[in-house]
Amino acid sequence: MITLVSAPVAPLLQSLFADAESVNVPAMAAFAALPVEQRAHILSSKTEYRAIYAELKDAAIPVSRETGLLLYMLARNAKASSIVEFGTSFGISTLHLAAALRDNGGGKLITTEFEPSKAQRARDNLSAGGLLDLVEIREGDALETLRGGLPDQIDLLLLDGAKGLYADVLALVENRLRPGALIVADNADYCAEYVAKVRDPEGGYLSLPLPGDVELSMKRG
User: What percent of the chain stands above pLDDT 90?
Assistant: First the structure.
């Protein structure tokens, strides 16, 4: 059995994606209506993320269906047993990663979410999917919640929170990334510092931009 495409996970994900596409969140519509330059400034900021993510607490802002499938496939292929995620939201990406852990024979996923209401919704969704036992949800600013208590070795890192913090979050966990560990960064172009680091030939990573604004990187051995 493949957990991702079996009940209860598959119908749950279908419902969550459908809700994310259909539910009208006024704050999200207002943000989308801002000029492109203003949106880019907010998304790449290291100081304005608290306010904007508080306003968007009712918006799922999920990874795409394609990126979710990519996450599952990467985690399965890497035989991941230890995963860290920055940006839980409603737990859609978390469900994909936790499903991979289940099919890999078990493991632990540490995920962190700034908004308490989103963390609770993610907890409920993971429970509904039968995957909560594999996940530790940390509430608060990732720059604090990921500062300690990490596993000695991390197989996969997902960056999908405040874009301007990608380089800072990577700095917190990179000494725990095993050689060959994978990093998936959604909308990485909003953090020039992060992109410069992972694409630097001398920076210790191999990196490849993928369709859908995803940056896939691998830590060199």
Answer: 87
